[in-house]
Amino acid sequence: MGDAPGGLQIYLRDGIRQGFVPEREANVSVFDHGYLYGDGVFEGIRAYHGRVFRLSEHIERLYRSAHAICLKIPMDEEEMAQVVVSACRINQIRDGYVRLVVSRGKGDLGLDPRKCPVPTIVCIADTIDLYPPDLYKKGMEIITVSTRRNRPDALNPNIKSLNYLNNIIAKIEVIQAGKFEGLMLNSEGYVAEGTGDNIFILRGGELMTTPVYAGILEGITRGVVIEIATKMGISVHERVLTLLDVYGADECFLTGTGAEIVPVIKLDERAIGAGVPGAVTEQLIQRFRELTQEAGVPIE
Ligand code: PXG
User: Fold this and answer.
1) Candidate list 72, 138, 160, 231, residue with the active-site label
2) Which residue, of 17, 25, 247, 252, has the fewest CB within 10 Å?
3) What are the residue ranges of helices labelled H in 8-121?
């Protein structure tokens, strides 16, 4: 919960209301197709040190996802960015997490999106629970889950839709195995991504990450890592990877808005590299942390 006076203030815009309302008043209709069908899109954004990190990239991805499902967001990108910044300011969030959700809106009990004339827009700015700090020092042990990532020709993982059951089913496997994260393969058996993060490996001094066409979400953090690695003189290739590539990698890490950069030291009980976080991974983590402290759209 945010500790702003009066509790969490949530931006809500639907057929009836527009503006910030206290959490208990921020209700969405049970007829909203976001609830009934997972018909909608979302973003998870971080604020660090009084700045919203990679805001324009997140907003652009939100609109791209919405466009792909023929959802016309009744607000331009600039105004949406302002909503995110305002949500942080009103809730006195300097370091936290913003969830932006745009759903199809209130309709009837059928699938027909034409029955939903007004999309529902929700923006929540709050603090978040992160992975234990220890994981960043010691590294994470992960498993390959049996649930395959959605096929792009059925539901493209590059649409950040409200339909996250594929990931949640995979996450349940991860939890049952007593781990924090798991690796999902695509329907052809190649490496796709984690349940909520992208994967990188280092081999022979070069970074490799899954290309978007292999069926992944094109992560904003993935983009930041490609950018900072390139600036550090490390070459980065988008390559379709097999499990064998990961088992035999020198280093491995996951990237995501929530996770940032997490070293992976073991996959399916096989040690990766020396079985400890790699030197390049640690350099990237350090550079990433510096960047989060200095870049972004100011909240005040
Ligand atoms: N793949 C998937 C399937 C994701 O959901 C990423 C990759 C990484 O993308 P970004 O743009 O964040 O670098 C995501 C993002 C959470 C949580 O609470 C998950 C995400 C984002 C924010 C929070 O688990 N997933």
Assistant:
1) 160
2) 25
3) 33-37, 55-68, 77-90
Q: Residue 189 C-alpha to ligand 1 middle, in angstroms? A: 21
Residue 3 is predicted with a pLDDT of 47
Nearest CA to ligand 1 atom 18: 258
Which atom of ligand 1 lies nearest, measured to the CA of 221?
A: 13
Domain count, the chain: 2
Residues with CB under 6 A from ligand 1: 44, 167, 193, 196-198, 217, 219-222, 255-258
Contact 10/122 with Cβ under 8 angstroms?
Answer: yes
Q: Is the same domain home to 143 and 96?
A: no
Q: What tens digit of pLDDT does each residue of 245-280 get?
A: 999 999 999 999 999 999 999 999 999 999 999 999
Find the domain containing 240 and state its range: 135-294
Residue 160 designated active-site = yes
Q: What is the DSSP track for 153-207?
A: TTS-TTS-BS--HHHHHHHHHHHHTT-S-EEEE-TTSSEEEESSSEEEEEETTEE
Q: What is the pTM of this model?
A: 0.95
Domain presence at residue 3:
no
CATH label of the domain that carries residue 177: 3.20.10.10
CA of 218 to the centre of ligand 1 (A): 9
Residue with tokens 């976001």: 34
pLDDT higher than threshold 70 for residue 141: yes
High-pLDDT (> 90) share of the chain, %:
95
Domain end (from 126, 161, 180): 126
108 and 158 inside one domain: no
